[in-house]
Backbone:
């Protein structure tokens, strides 16, 4: 018998904001109130538990103010129903209008709760899931700026259908919706370098995973959310989200591949925050986890990780740690082992190999790898790969009068590459 889902919207927003327990949110509300000019307000864990129940009571005005301040969403978006009722959002009639709203920074609609009656057939879940699966496959070859609008419109369709379904179809639909939002968030963060928009989209993915009661999807979403502060150098926020991701993974006994990937994500965050030794320890633990294996299957949607990808994480960490011979060996092996469909990852590996050669005072080799990365980017755009090339060019400043660096500049700043980069 499945347990009641409760107010999954508030749970998702709490976890995304870094409050890993109900007590942590209660303490944060009590602490934030005086800063907002509210005196004498104290909230206990029992109250937060009531808010996260299936029928959350509408908070008092002062609590309302602090709660929306901390979590950055309206009360309706947090799963509360006001005593005076709630108006239905008007649907967006054209794709152009919805695109304008998205690009102008308007917050995405929350994942809706279940309605009183189900009007969609049982097949709607598998039908919606089939399109989500196709988008997952298309990600590896379709230009991100082309695929992203299609994924977002598909997610909006899922939000419209979700209130019209009942379990078990609802759980199937919600899980596919969570995966769609996760894919959109991945595109926004890794391909388009829009971390703020990715944060908002990933929060919707977490809400949908909560509606599906899919802890493994929730773990994957939270780990992706850790990348955002991790890449910005905010270690505390990244670690908090990784703690939450591991807690979710334990609920369904995750596969060895998922556990190893969580180590790899945390390792990259630690590397970005300057803690290479800790990162290498996490990579070593991930290698041991993969070697041990497990009987649990890896979710079909987790197609972004493999032993080769773990070696890529390792090579980057070795590079940042200054272990250049080891990084050269690891990354060179990855380049040989990458499957033909991993063109996006190939640009990152080529960029890291270029960085190794630049750090080892070999500018000609660095320029050769960087040029290969640019050749691949001309075929398959990947903002993270371009970031790697630009980082390498900055390190080549001592050799900027060398012919190889001038040739790289001609390639890096030709008409097509410059316009393409600025467009994105």
Residues:
């Amino acid at each position: 018998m499945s347990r009641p889902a409760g107010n999954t919207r508030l749970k998702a927003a709490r976890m995304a904001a870094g409050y890993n327990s109900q007590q942590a949110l209660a303490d944060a509300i009590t602490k934030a109130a005086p800063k907002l000019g509210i005196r004498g307000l104290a909230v206990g864990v029992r109250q937060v538990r009531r808010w996260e129940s299936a029928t959350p009571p509408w908070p008092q005005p002062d609590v309302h103010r602090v709660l929306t301040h901390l979590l950055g969403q309206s009360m309706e978006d947090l799963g509360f129903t006001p005593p005076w009722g709630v108006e239905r959002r008007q649907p967006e009639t054209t794709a152009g209008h919805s695109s304008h709203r998205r690009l102008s920074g308007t917050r995405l609609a929350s994942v809706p709760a279940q309605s009183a009656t189900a009007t969609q057939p049982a097949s709607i879940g598998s039908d919606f899931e089939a399109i989500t699966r196709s988008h997952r496959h298309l990600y590896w070859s379709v230009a991100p700026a082309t695929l992203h609008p299609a994924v977002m419109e598909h997610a909006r369709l899922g939000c419209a259908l979700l209130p019209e379904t009942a379990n078990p179809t609802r759980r199937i639909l919600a899980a596919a919706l969570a995966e769609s939002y996760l894919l959109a968030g991945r595109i926004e963060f890794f391909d388009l370098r829009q971390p703020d928009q990715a944060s908002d989209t990933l929060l919707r993915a977490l809400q949908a995973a909560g509606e599906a009661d899919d802890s493994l999807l929730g773990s994957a979403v939270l780990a992706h959310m850790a990348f955002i502060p991790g890449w910005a150098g905010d270690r505390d926020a990244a670690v908090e989200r990784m703690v939450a991701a591991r807690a979710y993974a334990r609920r369904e006994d995750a596969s060895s591949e998922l556990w190893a990937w969580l180590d790899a994500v945390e390792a990259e965050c630690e590397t970005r925050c300057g803690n290479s030794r800790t990162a290498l320890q996490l990579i070593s633990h991930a290698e041991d986890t993969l070697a041990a294996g497990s009987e649990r299957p890896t979710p079909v949607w987790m197609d972004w990780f493999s032993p080769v990808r773990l070696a890529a994480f390792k090579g980057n960490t070795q590079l940042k740690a200054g272990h250049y011979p080891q990084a050269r060996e690891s990354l060179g092996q990855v380049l040989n082992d990458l499957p033909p469909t991993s063109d996006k990852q190939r640009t990152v590996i080529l960029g890291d190999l270029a960085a190794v050669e630049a750090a080892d005072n070999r500018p000609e080799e660095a320029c050769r790898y960087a040029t290969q990365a640019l050749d691949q980017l001309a075929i398959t755009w990947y903002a993270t790969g371009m970031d790697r090339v630009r980082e390498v060019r900055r390190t080549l400043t001592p050799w900027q009068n060398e012919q190889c660096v001038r040739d790289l500049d001609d390639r890096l700043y030709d008409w097509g590459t410059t316009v393409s980069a600025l467009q994105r």
In short: The longest helix spans residues 169-191. The chain is about 65% helix and 0% strand. Residues 84-109 have pLDDT under 50 and may be disordered.
